């Protein structure tokens, strides 16, 4: 073999392989990034942060009218059960508004989004900054072939072979919490004791507050209707920090205007819900029963405001 | 611009190569030098436009001094008093420039500490690659002073200093190593050199994107938790950094040498399996060879080397390695690292006088362990962190609540084991390039290397190049 042949072989073979690799990725399109993906249903197979971030470029804007944003507290609201609207649950475990903004701004910028629903809880406003190295613009190019896509195909294969469940369904619902068999009464009691012992007050991170304000402003600028709700705290935990929590609510409420709708699931109206331990799996996360109730309340409120007939499909169980 | 980026591999380099050979065909060599110089300045300014005027100013001043030195040498012979004065002024300019940009903050911080004063740190921007282009131009002045250089003009000089494959991180090339090659640039692509260039570049890319990344992640993890490392963690963290810096720097140099080969230019070897060294002197003949050579030829020997008695020899060794340390960065940890190597070299010299010999395997192990220990100071942010890692390595640390390798995927372990095996047992890149013969097997092998390198390059990993900071 001559040097010329060697050189040209290596160059051409590499180029062809790269093109083939990229073509396969575009064809599989597991992040819904390329072309018309209307009507496609794509679950999260691996790395939820990367997946939902990349979904925000094309998949969510092409298929959903509403976007639910929050941390793990709203992660297990199965928006697939909603009829009338198509709502994507963009919640992420451990998310703050830096990360939620990355998803929301992409969707708002690109889509015909009608509304967003924000889950408000002290957790999401106590920190700022990305919680991992994921959710960066370079990941768009990684979707053309990278270690991340290879990992995704490995997980997808396992799912197709029945070896594991998807991480989130096509609507972004994540059911990890539902598997937990935890005594919520004990967890709530522990959380209350810990709170009483430390005397800790709820702090709002300055940058996180600005990022929430920024998210609201972005939605407003694109005429996206803004809904928000204060996540229901277990009654005992609420009582233990009532003053601090009220301050938190007051400050957060200042970001919203009369055009926006903010519901408080910690009001007296929901007292019996919050006193019922079976609505929780621990000191914060909702049980399947609790999640279904809260989702129904959200949908009812959305219906009242947007005037679109929706509801939850009671026949469907959590997926 | 970094070699391990798609903007370099897929856009910049192919365009420069095509333009270069077009220029080479249609015009005299000067046209292709202009092409190379323009490309080099673009490459340099890509991420740091503000540094370009400093690079150009440094080149202009050094060129003017060097030309005058050559003139004096021609008229009055080498080493005359006018030349000496001019040479010293050139040295003062270069060291002053480097000192101002690289060490002002360090000096002010230390003055503040010593005098408990509160002088505000000027926070001077460090121009990219200033350590490299300054040292390179010092070699030019020194060689001009010795009458070893025949310079034929500004363009040739500027192309020599700014030639992009070696501009950012070396190797530190002498005028007479590069310029004769620039004067004989080929009119069309030489497929032998291009094939070797391709091999070198993509082996380098593979080193940087796989092994350096894996070891880097582990080292970062370990050093970030220095206070809570167990015995195994301490060793994992220190060894990880030892391998990270090797794969990172030697990989980058491979890419530099590979890029230069496409232009038919062979850059001097900078790494020769340094972790197989049998003593510390041998290590410095294999690690960052062009820097060691610079320090030997332009500092140690001019100081007097070993010609002025035993005590002075040890003093010269210490000075040389302290300069080596501080050249790497404005911080006391680099000084400590340099001092450790100086002491190691002095002890080795002392040992040599006993005429005793250590068998090669224990000698390699001892040298490697010494180098590994010294890297701990090089990597650590401060002395406390370094001592914590060393404490863990010696088993004096009782805390073991953290595991560096917790949750590490099997693929990373495979990369690390393959990397370590390659460091100690496989032929290094220079040998591969020397013995390389085209065949279908080598073609398939290189294609696989290219594809794996590109796959890792396109994956979210920290890809900061360590030596760029120096």
Which helices and strands occur, and which strands form pairs?
The complex is a heterodimer of chains A (319) and B (470).
Chain A: H1 3-28, H2 48-55, H3 59-63, E1 66-69, H4 72-75, E2 82-83, E3 87-89, H5 97-110, E4 115-120, H6 139-142, H7 147-160, H8 184-198, H9 206-221, E5 225-230, H10 235-240, H11 242-253, E6 261-264, H12 271-275, H13 288-306, E7 311-312
Parallel strand pairs in A: 1-3, 1-4, 4-5, 5-6
Antiparallel strand pairs in A: 2-7
Chain B: H1 6-26, H2 29-45, H3 52-76, H4 81-115, H5 130-145, H6 154-162, H7 164-167, H8 175-183, H9 191-224, H10 231-261, H11 280-286, H12 289-303, H13 310-328, H14 332-352, H15 360-379, H16 383-393, H17 410-425, H18 429-435, H19 440-457
Low-confidence stretches of chain A: 313-319
Secondary structure class of chain A reads alpha/beta
Order of helices and strands of chain B: HHHHHHHHHHHHHHHHHHH
Instruction: Tell me the strand percentage band of chain A.
Output: 5-15%
Number of helices of chain A: 13
Distance between the termini of chain A: 59 Å
Helix percent band of chain B: over 70%
Structural class of chain B: mainly alpha
- Uncertain segments of chain B are 462-470
Q: What is the percentage of strand-forming residues of chain B?
A: under 5%
How would you explain this protein's 3D organization?
The complex is a heterodimer of chains A (319) and B (470). Chain A has 319 residues and is α/β, with parallel strands linked by helices. Chain A is built from 13 helices and seven strands. Chain A is elongated. The C terminus of chain A is likely disordered. The two termini of chain B are 16 Å apart. Chain B is mainly α and 470 residues long. The radius of gyration of chain B is 23 Å and the shape is globular. In chain B, helix 1 packs antiparallel against helix 2 and helix 10 packs across helix 16.
């Amino acid at each position: 073999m001559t040097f010329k042949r060697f050189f040209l072989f290596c160059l051409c073979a590499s180029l062809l392989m790269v093109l083939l690799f990229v073509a396969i990725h575009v064809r599989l399109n597991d992040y819904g990034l390329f072309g018309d993906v209307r009507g496609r249903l794509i679950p999260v197979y691996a790395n939820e942060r990367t997946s939902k971030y990349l979904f925000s470029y094309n998949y969510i804007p092409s298929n959903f009218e509403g976007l639910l944003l929050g941390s793990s507290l709203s992660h297990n609201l199965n928006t697939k059960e909603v009829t009338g609207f198509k709502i994507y649950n963009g919640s992420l475990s451990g998310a703050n508004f830096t990360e939620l903004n990355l998803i929301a701004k992409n969707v708002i910028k690109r889509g015909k989004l009608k509304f967003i629903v924000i889950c408000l809880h002290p957790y999401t406003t106590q920190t700022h900054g990305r919680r991992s190295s994921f959710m960066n613009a370079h990941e768009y190019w990684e979707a053309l072939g990278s270690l991340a896509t290879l990992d995704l195909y490995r997980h997808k294969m396992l799912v197709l072979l029945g070896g594991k469940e998807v991480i989130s369904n096509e609507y972004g619902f994540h059911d990890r919490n539902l598997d937990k068999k935890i005594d919520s009464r004990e967890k709530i009691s522990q959380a209350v004791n810990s709170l009483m012992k430390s005397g800790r007050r709820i702090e709002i991170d300055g940058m996180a507050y600005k990022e929430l304000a920024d998210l609201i402003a972005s939605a407003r600028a694109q005429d996206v209707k803004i809904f928000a709700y204060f996540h229901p705290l277990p009654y005992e935990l609420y009582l233990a920090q009532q003053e601090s929590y009220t301050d938190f609510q007051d400050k957060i409420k200042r970001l919203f205007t009369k055009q926006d709708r903010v519901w408080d699931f910690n009001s007296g109206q929901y007292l019996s819900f919050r006193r019922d331990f079976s609505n929780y799996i621990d000191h914060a996360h909702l049980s399947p029963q609790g999640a279904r109730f809260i989702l129904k309340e959200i949908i009812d409120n959305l219906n009242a405001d947007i005037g679109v007939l929706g509801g939850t499909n009671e026949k469907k169980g959590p997926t | 611009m970094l070699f391990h980026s798609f903007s370099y591999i897929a856009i910049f380099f192919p365009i420069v190569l095509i333009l270069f050979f077009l220029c080479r065909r249609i015009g005299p060599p000067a046209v292709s030098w202009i092409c190379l110089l323009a490309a080099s300045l673009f490459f340099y300014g890509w991420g740091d436009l503000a540094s370009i005027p400093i690079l150009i100013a440094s080149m202009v001043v050094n060129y003017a001094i060097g030309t005058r030195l050559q003139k004096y040498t021609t008229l009055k012979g080498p080493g005359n008093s006018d030349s000496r004065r001019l040479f010293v002024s050139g040295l003062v300019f270069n060291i002053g420039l480097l000192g101002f940009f690289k060490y002002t903050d360090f000096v002010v911080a230390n003055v503040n500490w010593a005098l408990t004063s509160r002088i505000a740190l000027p926070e001077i921007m460090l121009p990219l690659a200033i350590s490299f282009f300054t040292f390179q131009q010092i070699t030019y002045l020194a060689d001009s002073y010795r009458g070893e250089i025949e310079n034929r003009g500004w363009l040739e000089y500027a192309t020599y200093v700014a030639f992009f494959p070696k501009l950012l991180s070396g190797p530190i090339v002498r005028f007479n190593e590069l310029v004769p090659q620039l004067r004989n640039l080929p009119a069309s692509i030489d497929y032998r050199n291009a094939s070797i260039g391709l091999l070198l570049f993509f082996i380098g890319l593979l080193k940087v994107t796989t092994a350096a990344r894996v070891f880097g992640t582990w080292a970062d993890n370990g050093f970030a938790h220095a206070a809570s490392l167990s015995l195994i963690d301490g060793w994992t963290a220190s060894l990880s950094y030892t391998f990270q810096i090797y794969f990172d720097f030697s990989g980058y140099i491979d890419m530099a040498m590979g890029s230069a080969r496409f232009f038919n230019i062979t850059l001097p070897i900078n790494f020769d399996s340094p972790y197989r060294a049998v003593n510390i002197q041998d290590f410095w003949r294999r690690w960052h060879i062009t820097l060691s050579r610079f320090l030997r030829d332009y500092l140690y020997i001019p100081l007097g080397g070993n010609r002025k008695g035993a005590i002075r020899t040890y003093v010269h060794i210490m000075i040389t390695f302290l300069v080596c340390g501080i050249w790497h960065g404005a911080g006391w940890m680099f000084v400590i690292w340099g001092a450790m190597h100086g002491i190691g070299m002095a002890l080795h010299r002392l040992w040599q006088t006993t005429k005793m010999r250590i068998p090669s395997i224990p000698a390699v192990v001892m040298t490697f362990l010494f180098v590994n220990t010294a890297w701990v100071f090089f990597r650590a942010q401060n002395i406390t962190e370094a001592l914590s890692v060393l404490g863990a390595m010696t088993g004096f640390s009782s805390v073991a609540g953290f595991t560096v390798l917790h949750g590490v995927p099997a693929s990373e372990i495979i990369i690390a084991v393959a990397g370590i095996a390659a460091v100690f047992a496989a032929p290094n890149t220079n040998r591969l390039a020397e013995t390389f013969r085209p065949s279908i097997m080598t073609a398939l092998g290189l294609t696989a290397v290219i594809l794996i390198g590109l796959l890792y390059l396109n994956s979210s990993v920290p890809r900061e190049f360590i030596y760029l900071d120096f």
